[in-house]
Each structure stands twice: as structure tokens, then as C-alpha cells.
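Q: Structure for this?
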Amino acid sequence: MRWVAGLNSIEDLVSIQSSESPIFPSEILLGHEGLSRLGTFTDGALEKAAKEARKLDVRPILEWDILMTEAELNKSAEIISSWSDEMRAQFGAVRVQDPGALQYLLEHWKGLPIQLNLETGNHNWDAIEGWIASGEGRIERIILSIELPIDRLRTYSQKLKESAPGVSIELLGLGPILLLYTPRHLLSTRASFTPSDTIRSIASSDEGVHKGFRVLENRHGTFLFHQKDYCLMEHAEDLSQAGVQELRLDFRLEQDSAPVITALSDMSRYPNKTTRCFYQANATDVLFKKLKNTRVQRMDHHYVGEVVESSKGSHTIIQVLGKDQTITLGQTFKFISPDGHIKEQIIDSLTNLDGEVVNEVAMGDYAVTPYIKLATARTAVYRD
Amino acid sequence: MAPRFKPELLSPAGSLDKLKASITYGADAVYLAGQKYGLRSAAENFTLDELDEGVQFAKAHGAKIYVVLNSFPHDQDIESLGEFVGQISDLQVNGVIASDLGVISIVRKNSQLPVHLSTQASCLNSESGKIWKKQGVSRLILGREVSIQDAGKIKRATGLEVELFIHGSMCMAYSGNCTISNFTRGRDSNRGGCAQSCRLSYTLESPSGTTPAVQEPGTFFMSSKDLLGLDLLEYFSEEQIDSVKIEGRMRSPLYAATTAKVYREAIDAYDRDGKLSPQDLAIWLKQLDQISHRDYMSGSLVQPANENSTVTYDTKGNQEFEFVGTVRRVEPEKGYVLMDVRTSFRVGETLDLLPFEGDSTLIPVQSLMSSIGQSIDHARVSTLVRLPYFKQAQVGCILRKAAQA
């Protein structure tokens, strides 16, 4: 397993290297203050950090992961185009999420390998394959979503070996879980603040599961993080066997990084609560069935219509809605009520709304029958 | 002088009833979802038979239908997507709305349907638009962070159609960049399970020792105000924004009808007169104030949304009118108007008919008959009732009444 580190300073990198931790980052993410969500480096500090990382035999990766409106993209392009060739040459690769940044790199910064952040969605192979192709051979790595369980990662790794053998997979291994990213400044109006400050808060709702969210606002907007950190440290070997080549450590949210760095040699000392969420399985769609009553849906071509009025002891009114369907005297129909009752009923008396006896009611019209027990309003009616 | 550019009015259709309301009240096109692949799992959505009926209805009224496939699906979710795309293509819908590159790829392999890039993909700039153009999309539904002016630039830079939201609820996050529901409720917000965690009240506290300190109980700091772009139509036209979209597939037929009617009248008035009169604007804004909404703002249509873009209290219930029902049949010779009842009312109350065009009409309920012609004094929910005939009634018209305090 190779390790990628998101750190606030080169000093933190030195601390990791000099600790007793068996983990030795081979890459460091360097975030420019104008290009990176959590970046703090100015131009000069960025170049210096990149050079120092190289001296430590660690590959510096330029992080350009903000999402950008037209104006922000222009600002980002201005920052990058102002850099000297020497400074540009310091970076081993660049990491982007906004497709606009990808397109800019393809057009204006030739040659530099690209690490593509696909953590937002991209939960299927067709999407992943498409994004790699859009990189025109420049993608060296994809950073995948932590919502993908290990079996999917294994599958993608195998497919990558066949279709794009030079592309590796990276996953967050230890660090905060980003839940929401907005360009709006949501804390600044609530504190004495200037736009370039970083401001932090903890947000908790009375709703049980919405407690202890960490909130950070900076020049790029506001970021909401889960109350627990993501941690796959104990699964590193399994992930490696599944084909994940890089795991990322991200300590940039920590105001004091010493405790988390210390914990790398003994995870029981990790100061934050952790979770592994969807590592084994992702079932975040199973509750959808409960979000609506599917019994009231049109199921198939046997659908005739629905009960629009049920007057106990008096009558039931059915509106014929199915294409080319009719309700005909003497026929039997199946009724499926919203609360699940299923009933078969022969129509032995039929009138229209004006009380006229009819033999058949066509699509769009209303059929009045004697009261049909359990066939409440919105009961679906099917040809038996 | 070049003719004024007239954008398409695109309205929500969470169900067949809402589709009909949106179209009859003036939408040029509607967007809707099937039972899978959309982002509103709790909406009724459309079975294929309903979609077929919706397409026929839209065609008869000269309107278009776009099918939303904008979830972020997992592999197992898209196994049958190709078949579904073939089916909706056979039904002759006018396009699909997608955000995931895998979905777009499958749509293109299985149909000739135009692909509109969903706002869920957060396309925010022209360089991004170029990437999506290479993927075969014909229209960019831009992120809600994009201004009207920048949308015009993106259109010119990419040569693609562009669409912007003009009205309705707004995500706080960059669309597609929120997973609160996924990690807290086990419901994938990007597959239709958004639990609206951003709308909750939160207490903000600063970690000890941090400055500047934030300390605020009971704040809706993540709950965005609703978008209102009616008074900016001139800029949409000037920048040649191809389509203006109203959010709200989960909203009522009254919402669909009112928003479609107001924006239809405003777009037509601007096209005809080159301006919106202050008097008309005041009337339309009042009508938009009468439907369920949070406090309004102009979002990022002119300047980036920032201060004052969140609600200060839970204002979703702001509404002056509630949906009572829809006219189902007009029988002048028999002397009655048949309506279905979604909110109960009694003899003595006054209903308000929202016509397809023009001013609303007060309908005092002086008498009432049941569906089968018996005199009643109370119209109950989920029944049909007969109102005495009135000449303004047309099939499909919405009836409303003043909301209970």
C-alpha cells in the first residue's frame, strides 16, 4: 500500500517520517489557498513546500479541487499561469474534481499527470471508464468514493487492469468525511469575520443523528463534516489485495495534528471517533420502498382505473384511466387498496354519474357501482 | 432590431395530474421521472403507461417531455437502464436529463434521445461545458451557483443550449455534493433519498479556544431561501438562456399551476412588450407569494448568493391558499361543475378558481351536491362533488381557498 498525505505543513510530514509509525507517505497533497478547498499555501509557500517534499523523497501533488464558477475558473487560471516553469516542474501530478479544471489542464498544462477525484458519485463502471477516457491518456489515478464497498473496488481494479493498466485507485483511508460543500459563507454572518478567515464550528440538531458535525468556512465557502472520521487502517491489507494501491491520510482539519500523527503508530490512541460506513456493503437504497405507497401505482396493462369515491353503504365510483380500458357490466375486477387489501368483485350493477343505467363505461368516464367494501379511495382496479 | 429571445418554460411534473396542470397552465415542457433513476423516490413518478398518457397529452398541447435519469446509480441500478431508455424512446419523449457519465453513455448507446446534463452534475463553467459536450450532451442545466450572465458566456463558449433554474427550492450544497442523508440516515440523497437534513434547526458552537467564536442556538444556517427570478426575465432573454426551469416535482398541482401560469404570462408579456410593467409584476409576485414557499431570494442569478440567503425560521408553510381540487367535468346544460376534492370545504365558504389565463374568480359555495346529485353541505376529501355551474369553469382548472391560519 502506498500512502498519500493531506497535511497542513511540511513539518507534519517530517513528524510522520520521524515517528514510530510504519506508515511513510509517498505523496503529499499541497493545497494552494486559491485552488484547494482546504489549501493554505501562498505561491511562495507552495513552491517551498514542494521543494522540501522532494528533498524528503515525497512526491508533491498540486491539489486543485475547488468547484468553480466562470469567474473562479478564470482566477484559478490566472494563479497557475503566473507560475514559473521551475515552479510548475516541482509537482509530480495535479489533482482535480471540477471537469473544467480537467479541461483546462488538457488544453493549457501539457504533460503533467492528472489524478481525477471521482468521489462525488461515479458509482458504476461505465462512469469511471468514461472519465478515464476523457482524460486523453493523462489520468494516472482515480480517487473513488467511500460509498463503494470493497467488492466493487475489487471489480473495478480488475477491470482497470484490462482497460487502463496505468491507472491506480486511491481511497480515503483515515480522515474527515465531507458531507456538504457549498460556496456560501454560512458562519461568517454569525461571528466577527473577514472573508479570508477560516472559521470553525460544531453543528448539532435535536434530531439524534445530526449531532457534532464539524463545520469549516473559508474563502471557498462552507464545508460540513461527519462527526466521526473515516478509518480503514485495519483493512489496508485487504484493500491492497483488492487492488486499491493508495490510501489517503487527511489531517488538514485538525488544528493540532500531533495527536493524530502519534496515533499512526497506535490507532487506539486516535483522538476522534471513527467509522468505516459502507466498507462492507452499501444499502442506502433499501429504505426507498417505504417512501411511498407502491400499491396505488399502475402496475401493468391490466390496469383499468382507480376508485375516486367510496361512500359507505351507498356506492363506489371508479374512474376508468387505463388505455383502451372499459368497465363492463358482469365482468370481474381485482381491487388493490392503498393499505394492501386485495379483493375480487363482479360488477353486477352499473350507472353513470347521472344515474342512468349503462352496460359499459369507457376511458375517462366514471362508473358508479354499488358500494364495494374495502375499496377505499385510490384503490387500483385491474382487469382480473 | 433583432427579435427578443424567448426561453422555454420548463415545469415540474411529479405525477400525471401535475403534468396536466403544468401544461394546461402554460409550460412549454415538463420534466418527470419514471419509477427509477430519478432523485425523488417519494414522488409518485410515472409508470410507462402513465408516461405514454403524459406524452399524448403533451403532444396534444404542443409541449415537450424530458425524462429525468439524474441519480448517481450504482452498477446494479443500471442493469436494466438500457431497456428503459429504449422504452421511453419508443414513447417519443423529447429528451432525458442525466448527470452520471455512465447513464449518459447508456442512453447514447440505446437511443437517439437528446441528453440534457442535469444540474446534479454541477456544471459551473465553460471549460466544464466543453468536457460534457464531448460526452454528447446537447444542453447544460447549469449549477444554481451560475449567474445569468455567466450562463450566457457558457452558451457562447460551448455552442450548447443552456438551462437555468428560475424558481423554487434550492440545495444548499453544490448539487451532487451533499451526502448528509447517506451517512446519517442510510438514505442515498443522490439516488432519491434526500432526507432534507439541511432544513433542520441546528445549534452552532465553537470548539473551545477557537476564534472567532460562533455561538447560536436554533439556527437554520443550512436552509436556503427559495429562488425567485421572475423580475430578471429581461436578463434571461438578453443572454439567450434556452430554458428556464421551475423546481418542485414534490409540490402540489396548485404550485405547478400557479408557477406555470405566472411565468407563462410574464414570459409572453416580456416577449410582446420588451419589459414587465410594475403593475403586472406586482400581481405576479403576489400570486407567487400565495403558494407554499420559503422566503424568496434571487439566488446567484445576479450576484453569488451569500448573506441573507438562508431562512431565519422554518417558513416552508408560507402560503395564503391551499389546493382544494380540480375541475373534472363541466356540464352547463345539467347545471353543474364536477370537481374532485383534495381539501374539504363547506357550503358558505368561498373558493377561488385559477383560470388558465387571466385573473382568478371567486366562487362562493352557495349550494353543493354529491357526485350522484344529492344535496350536501360538506365536501369531504377524496370525493367528487357538484358545484352549481359557473361559466369560468374549464376542465383541468384548479380550485383553491384561503389557507387555515
